[in-house]
Amino acid sequence: MRWKRTHTCGELRKQNDQQTVILMGWVDRWRDHGNLLFVDLRDRYGITQIKVDIGSEAYPVAKRMRGEFVVAFKGTVSLRPLDMVNSQIPTGEVELVAHECIVLNSADTPPFQIGTTINASEDMRLRYRYLDLRNPRMQQKLLVRHRVAQVARQYLSENNFVEIETPYLMKSTPEGARDYLVPSRIWHGRFYALPQSPQTYKQLLMVSGFDRYFQIVRCFRDEDLRADRQPEFTQIDVEMSFVDEEDIFAIVEGLMARIFKSELDLELTVPLQRIPYDEAMRKYGTDRPDLRFGLELQDVGDLVHDSEFKVFSQAVASGGKVVGFAAPSCARYSRKQIDQLTDFCKERGAKGLVAIKVKGSEWDSPLTKFFTQEQQQAIVERLSAKDGDLMLFVADQVDLTLQIMGELRVMVARQEQLIPADVYKMAWVTDFPLFEYSEEERRYVARHHPFTSPRPSDLDKLETEPAKVKARAYDLVLNGLEIAGGSIRISTRELQAKMFNALGIRKEEAQEKFGFLLEALSFGAPPHGGIAFGFDRLIMLLTHSNSIRDVIAFPKTASAMSLMDGAPAQVREEQVKELGLILQQSPSIKAGE
Amino acid sequence: MRWKRTHTCGELRKQNDQQTVILMGWVDRWRDHGNLLFVDLRDRYGITQIKVDIGSEAYPVAKRMRGEFVVAFKGTVSLRPLDMVNSQIPTGEVELVAHECIVLNSADTPPFQIGTTINASEDMRLRYRYLDLRNPRMQQKLLVRHRVAQVARQYLSENNFVEIETPYLMKSTPEGARDYLVPSRIWHGRFYALPQSPQTYKQLLMVSGFDRYFQIVRCFRDEDLRADRQPEFTQIDVEMSFVDEEDIFAIVEGLMARIFKSELDLELTVPLQRIPYDEAMRKYGTDRPDLRFGLELQDVGDLVHDSEFKVFSQAVASGGKVVGFAAPSCARYSRKQIDQLTDFCKERGAKGLVAIKVKGSEWDSPLTKFFTQEQQQAIVERLSAKDGDLMLFVADQVDLTLQIMGELRVMVARQEQLIPADVYKMAWVTDFPLFEYSEEERRYVARHHPFTSPRPSDLDKLETEPAKVKARAYDLVLNGLEIAGGSIRISTRELQAKMFNALGIRKEEAQEKFGFLLEALSFGAPPHGGIAFGFDRLIMLLTHSNSIRDVIAFPKTASAMSLMDGAPAQVREEQVKELGLILQQSPSIKAGE
User: Which of B184, B453, B519 to mutate to test the interface with A (most CBs of A within 10 A)?
Assistant: First the structure.
């Protein structure tokens, strides 16, 4: 380098007046005023205006510059005339009067304008990701990500947690999602798997006595991707020994408070609210309730089971639920608006939606004829409905009703702009069911994972009434998203074996897949538990991003491709052969096509 | 948990006398003194002695404890009688007089004694890694690793570096080592590769303007493993824009100084010594010289080319070298000892070793007859040989001679215990050749990687005299090991294309493999360069470990297996089928068998 950079483009202020400095960066804008050129020079730290006079040595070089050229300017810092001050940027009071300049590298015209996303499709932005990442808005997201990771590491280290790196090439133990496999070249026909999480390793580290472990670690799931999923994602993974739920909640609340304070300058009120799973489902129709607004669901089954309105009474009679909430000031809704809500519910499987307007404290609805005055009144009261509200009800099977009403609650809140901006409502959801029934596999599967401890008082129901067993599991929810989930683990071999059995995993299969863990539990495992944060999602929330792809430097598309380098790609024939593998058909065929 | 732990087993001191505390941990030792039991309770933080009197409630429970049981004790801290103080451990002045205790988990008898490696083969230790990791010596290594990672992150963050996570599922671009491949389930016949390093990504981040990047990141190489290699290993990966070698040296020296200060309480003297590659080869016969001792090699070709000793004169005549050094006080060596040195050289390809004893300042050797008095004297002087030294020479082709003498130098230094313990000698090796000739591929290959910038003054030789082109590459060596390597990169598309061409990579191939990088370089790449540390090796050196496996929580064997969980393992047939693959033969066959 002929020159050394003395300052960044975000650094110069009034007090640097008259200093000779060297700046390097990208040409953000370039304006030719005849015998004067202005260059806005950009780097990660900011933008500085460069003034190039026609008389200066820099002029002929600067004249040939174009957008995104990489250039260096030597010059004198100078105060801008008062009427030229740009208060929008921190360097706006000064400019650099150029003496000399160098073009360090030229640039072809970018396929889209740097710093905006207006004229670029997301595919285009992903293909030229390195250009999209020149956008200061995108850079800020990754800077937040960096800072939050550092703060988390520092907090956990201060609290005696040890970051320990666990293997990426591990054993395939598919239970839940699909593993990415890595064929072994040395052992033909055998495969490693990329970790879906370091779950077994962190438990083994507890057996080793590491006491407090964490890791910010990449995890992998070969799933059919939804919009907010990526084949590889990052977790803050935490595990502790000699603890129960309270210890884990305290550590996590401290971590979240630290992150909120350092990144958002917000004081998080702890301890956080705790909501048992059953209550969350009952009140919000979901296990990750958005608590930034009310509209709590109300079960009115007991009030309407004997009404003449068959939709309600029959739902109750057949074991279902009638659930409603009052949409504030929505009695003004037109027929069309109500039809839209009805369609929303029908798309999700409801037979229909019952909408009743409230006027004063009375019903304003043709349905009044099916209900007694007392029933009407009781319902208004149960829903705390007020004059001008619109009461909305779905009556159907329990799970479906709750789920639909939970989604409707969020939809109405968004539509009515009841969700305050820049508010963060965090809570624990606790007492999850240990199992859920998989229609596909026709068996109970672990809701969390098979290492989650059942509640001790439910142990006797493990094999007889699995649906009733609660887990020592907990989720941390923030603004309607699950940002962390964890549990107290099973720490004895006997209970772990019983759990595998309850999950319908045969003894030999359990031994083959998880023998090493069962064995480890028999050599003195401490009581332990932990949690894992979805780091990408946390950063998404902290940066108000709409897509998880915005907070990942080089993300993949919904079909798990990298549009930038074309991965996954064909490889040389020898590479496949060396692995002892044969392709079923010629490459580049999308599976199923 | 019925009880809450109040202290760790490494925490109690005299000043805790008479406090009631609860400790939890593993039974390290258990001694029955009739009406008194002693339990040494162990956790990650230390060991505390528990005294259980036959009269206490704790006694019947403690009586049933065995080694490695996980237990909790409630009791009163008490000063030990002066004659029972154990000054070996920080808690040795106190003991816990137990009131109550609980067995939290029982333990089978471990296959080897915890805390020693005496009765356990390495295979056994790897199979039960979680038990081997209970060894405080092993735990300390991972704690050092954790702390060094934190210190490195903190230092780099303070210096405006941003940690950015790059993909693990990337494109296969084998150039150098073999990639681990990950078959795509969605795109049959296509593969991802696990990164050998995030080289291309970090360069793209420079093109994005991130200016200063780092990442502590896992890398993968599917190589036939040597003793000190692992299929997955960790790098501290660093890249900077608008810099030359000096900037990178300064940042890295600051980092190393910080690590040495924090972990070893040593002041590292910076700037570090710099040794051009040619000089390193000439003086030490290696590009990673161990500078903790002298024994520098001396070329005596000019002194002996016309001697009557054909071994020497013919070596020079045929373009080879005669290189020697003086082994201090080794004139005492017996015939047998000298034969051993000779064998050492022959095993490495030398035709023989010439050993000449020095008495006073004269030769004491039958070979005197072949050399003039002046030649003898000049050689003694060139080697700075003293009375009682043994001069050792190899005469052969240049590279072979230097390599063998380099190894002999280290071997003699070890044997003579000339290498001081606890001394760290760090230096830069610079000015590497850009290319090396691959006999296997019959072409020049990149010595570092194909993105390394040639020295500007050598640009004209790139296609005509590749062997003479020097690279802007540098290695950081510590005590004879390379701990980091890096370079200033190529930052223009033109030069990068020229480089691919010089490497014999056809235009279409370069486009297909690295088109995205070439394209990125055309949109305004800043001058940039970086370095990557072998983090495992650094920790090995800092913890005085003999094996890289000792500083990795869950390492693999030389055949890339995890003895603990049996990875790589067979997977279900559907898993392979879903990937569009067929196994060449039935599984579990070691390739080539």
Answer: B184
pLDDT bracket for residue A560 (50, 70, 90):
very high
Cα gap A265→B498, rounded to integer Å: 51
Chain A residues within an 8 Å CB radius of B522: 107-108
Closest CA to A150 of B488, B160, B547: B160
10 Å CB burial of residue B98 (0-12, 13-18, 19+) is buried
Look-up of token digits 């902290």: A542
A415 token code pair = 């539509």
Both structure tokens of A493: 């071999």
Name the pLDDT band for B229 (thresholds 50, 70, 90). confident
pLDDT at A592: 46
Cα B169 to Cα B179: distance, rounded to the nearest angstrom: 11
Rounded percentage of chain A residues whose pLDDT exceeds 90: 89
Q: The tokens of A35 are what? A: 């015998």
- Strand A273-276 to A426-430 pairing: parallel
> Could you tell me if B574 lies within 8 Å of chain A, comparing CB atoms?
no
Q: For residue B448, is pLDDT > 90?
A: no
Interface touch A209/B133, C-beta < 8 Å:
yes
Annotate B579-590 with b (16+ C-beta within 10 A) or e (fewer).
Answer: bbbebeeebeee
Residue B147 burial (CB count, 10 A): 18
Cβ atoms of B582 and B183 closer than 8 Å: no
- Residue A23 touches chain B, beta carbons under 8 Å: no
Measure B535 CA to nearest chain A CA, in Å: 12
Average pLDDT value over all residues in chain B? 94
- Per-residue confidence (pLDDT) for residue A591, from 0 to 100: 53
* pLDDT attached to residue A593: 43
- Kindly report the number of other CB atoms within 10 A of residue B338's CB atom: 16
Report residue A562 as tokens: 């990298």
pLDDT beyond 60 at A149: yes
Task: Band the pLDDT of A532: cuts 50, 70, 90.
Answer: very high
**How far, in Å, CA of A340 to CA of A334, rounded?**
10
Say yes or no to pLDDT of A117 above 70: no
pLDDT confidence bin for B593, thresholds 50/70/90 = very low
Q: Is A451 on the interface with B (CB under 8 A)?
A: no
Q: For the packed helices B136-158 and B245-259, what is the interaxial angle rounded to 10 degrees?
A: 140
* A354-359: strand order across its sheet: A298-299, A321-327, A390-396, A354-359, A362-364
A506 bridge partner residues: none
Q: Which residue of B has its CA nearest to A234?
A: B165
Substitution target from B523, B550, B586 for chain A, most A beta carbons within 10 A:
B523
A354-359 and A362-364 as β-strands: parallel, antiparallel, unpaired? antiparallel
> What's the average model confidence in pLDDT over B220-231?
85
- Give the DSSP H or E segment for B355: strand B354-359
Chain segment A55-97, per-residue pLDDT in tens: 999 999 999 999 999 999 999 999 999 999 999 999 999 999 9
Q: Are A61 and A101 in contact (CB under 8 A)?
A: yes
Q: Taking chain B, what is the end-to-end CA distance rounded to the nearest angstrom?
A: 53
pLDDT value at A118 more than 90: no
Cis peptide, bond prior to residue A568, ω within 30 of zero: yes
What's the pLDDT at B271?
97
The reply to whether residue A171 touches residue B492, judged by beta carbons under 8 angstroms, is no
Q: Does B593 touch chain A (CB under 8 A)?
A: no
- Mean pLDDT over B220-240 rounds to 90
Mean pLDDT of chain A: 94
Q: Does the beta carbon of A428 lie under 8 angstroms from any beta carbon of chain B?
A: no
Give me the residue from A576, A578, A590 closest to B187, CB to CB: A590
Contact between residue A282 and residue A288 where contact means Cβ atoms under 8 Å apart: no
